[in-house]
Amino acid sequence: MDRPEKLSTIKKRRSLSFRIAKWWIPKFFYCTSYLIFGTARMRYFSKNNFDELVDNNKSIIVACFHQGILFLPFLLRHNRYGKRIAMVSTSPEGDYIAGAMKMFGQSAARGSSTRGGKKALQVMIDMLNEGHQQPQAHHGLITVDGPKGPAHEVKMGVVKLAKETGLPIVPMNWYAGSGITLRNWDQTMLPRPFSKLAIAYGEPIFVSKDACEKKMEETRQEVARSLEDCYRIVQENA
C-alpha cells in the first residue's frame, strides 16, 4: 500500500514559495518548449503505423525512455491525438509536471498519497478503460524506466498497462543533434533552439488479456529491443 504523505511534504505544498513556483514553472516550461522544440528541424522514422492508428481514432500507449520526457508534452500537443494521459508522480515536483501537461491539453494519472489509495498505474488503467466508452481516443504516455531508473531498463508497468487496457504499445525515442545532457540518473536531453531532432517509432506491440508471466516477460524484452532500435536510429540520424 502507498505510504501516507509526509508532514514535511504537506508543509511544502502549503508554502507561499511552492504555490508561486507551481504557478510559474508550468508556464515557463510551456513557453520554453515552443522556443526549443518549436524551432527544431524534425525528421521522423517509421511513423506510418503511429499515424494510421491515430488517424483512425485508435487508442494507443506511447512508450519512451525517461531521458526524453521533456519532449513528450510538445510532441503530442495537438487535439488530433484525442485525450492524452500520462503517469505523474504524487510528489510536489509532480505538481509542476501535471500543471505543464494541463497547458498542453493533457491529463495526469496520479496515485493517492494516502495509505490504501490507488497507485498511479491503476489510476491510469482505470482512465484508459473508461475511455473505451468514449468516442474520442484515449492515449497513454509512459516512460518505461521511470520514475527512478535504472536508465533504459524497461519495467513491467508498461506491459501490465497494455494487458489491462488491451491497447497496443508504440515504442518511441528521439535524439537531438545539438543540446545539453543533464547530469541526473536518466541523463535528460535538452536540445538547443533550431537544432536537428530525429524521432523514431517501433511497430505496435500487443499484449493479450490472458498473457501469463512468461509471455509478459517476453513482451517486456520485445519492448526493450524496439526502444533500443529506435534509440540507435535517432542517434545515427540526429
Automatic annotation (TrEMBL):
Pfam families in the record: DUF374 (PF04028)
Source superkingdom: Bacteria
InterPro entries found in the cross-reference section: DUF374 (IPR007172)
Entry keyword GTP-binding: no
Residue ranges of domain DUF374 in the record: 85-151
Record key words, sorted: Membrane, Transmembrane, Transmembrane helix
Membrane-spanning ranges: 21-40, 60-76
Protein name: DUF374 domain-containing protein
Lineage, broadest ranks: Bacteria, Pseudomonadati, Planctomycetota, Candidatus Uabimicrobiia, Candidatus Uabimicrobiales
